[in-house]
């Protein structure tokens, strides 16, 4: 009888051990491929990571880092909040470092290297009894408060690049932010090295936007207004940038208590404007993105004027079709103007394309594309000029054009009607 009792006791202990070892024990690799380091986007990186995991007694946290560059300390909540690493509960300096979660409750971990914790290398988790335990209902979120439009700089000082550690960087940046209709995203990057594409969810998930509808923006910085209630998906369209983590998904909601913007807000009425192309830069060979950057964010309406300033004999202004603009075909022009300043009144809606006929100037970036919208509903007719024109004065031989054109500083070759005819004719090439 005694031997049977001993056998049963040993069996019970063995079964208990087996049950414990098979009760959904899991190893959580902190940050996944991102690892344990100072994360781009700050402490939200590890909050985002932890939000996607459930931690139970018996689970293991695995911190992967380069020995000597990082470390990991288990600390109290007070030390976690203040980034105080002087008296850690446990410190591990060799990677990978494993911690077994052997009690229910909250655990706090930080990096103790110089300012690593303050820069976001910190993780807080909550451990429950076991995977079968019901998850307590989260506290209801407070109702959002109405506010004015906000411009969010994507990635903050980090900017818009291929992030170290993959897509967690921009998920972390967006975490905890509330995006309302009327807010704006600002993407900062180096022209030519990055771009921003607005894509569908499928293209975002697969990083494949071939044969899909998308919007590509290359001028720096990119300002994107969130004017519809929906989910937005952004990726870097350059080779493998999306796969390497240059992607951002956000959800835009209505501003509580505020009006919901229409998909395309109506422009405020205004008087015609004279735009000095390139401002102080003028019209010359500037590099690939200069004039698209200049035009970005400007609204061109019927009645506005473009002024091209250049040194006579070194440049010209050619009005061309889209095909000629795209291919830099200077043998196919609608009109060419050689005397500075060239003043063009925009008196038809649609896309207009300008370049230079000088050898390779177009290929080197001397090209401008704009879209002219319908005339403002405002009644003002006076001409306002946001930029002081260059010192090139209109030719004394160029008389002001008659009729509706005499508000412009000067007309190309003295004929506003000729310009009008050219721009209307150009609209038929679209």
Would you summarize the structure shown here?
Residues 380-400 have a biased composition (Low complexity). The chain has 430 residues and is α/β, with parallel strands linked by helices.
CATH class of the largest domain: Mainly Beta
Our measurement of the CA-to-CA distance between the termini, rounded to an integer number of angstroms, reads 99 Å
* Stretches with pLDDT under 50, minimum 5 residues: 4-22, 133-139, 260-266, 377-430
What is the percent of helical residues?
Answer: 10-25%
Briefly note the CATH topology name of the largest domain.
Immunoglobulin-like
* Overall average pLDDT: 77
Strand order of the largest sheet: 2-8-7-4-5
CATH 4th-level superfamily of the largest domain:
Cupredoxins -  blue copper proteins
Named CATH architecture of the largest domain: Sandwich
In DSSP terms (H or I, runs of 4 or more residues), the helix count works out at 8
Structural class category:
alpha/beta
User: How many independent structural domains?
Assistant: 3
Rg of Cα set: 31 Å
Care to describe what's here?
The protein has 430 residues and is an alpha/beta fold. The chain has three domains: 11-128, Immunoglobulin-like (Sandwich); 151-253, Immunoglobulin-like (Sandwich), CATH 2.60.40; 274-427, Immunoglobulin-like. Helices cover 17% and strands 23% of the residues. The chain has eight helices and 24 strands. It has helices spanning 2-21, 44-51, 77-82, 168-174, 201-206, 290-295, 322-327, 416-427; strands spanning 27-29, 55-56, 60-63, 72-75, 90-92, 97-100, 105-110, 122-128, 151-153, 179-180, 184-187, 196-199, 215-217, 222-225, 230-235, 247-253, 274-276, 300-301, 305-308, 317-320, 335-337, 342-345, 350-355, 367-373. The strands form six sheets. It has a five-stranded mixed β-sheet. Helix 2 (44-51) crosses helix 4. The longest helix has 20 residues, at 2-21. It is elongated and about 80 Å long.
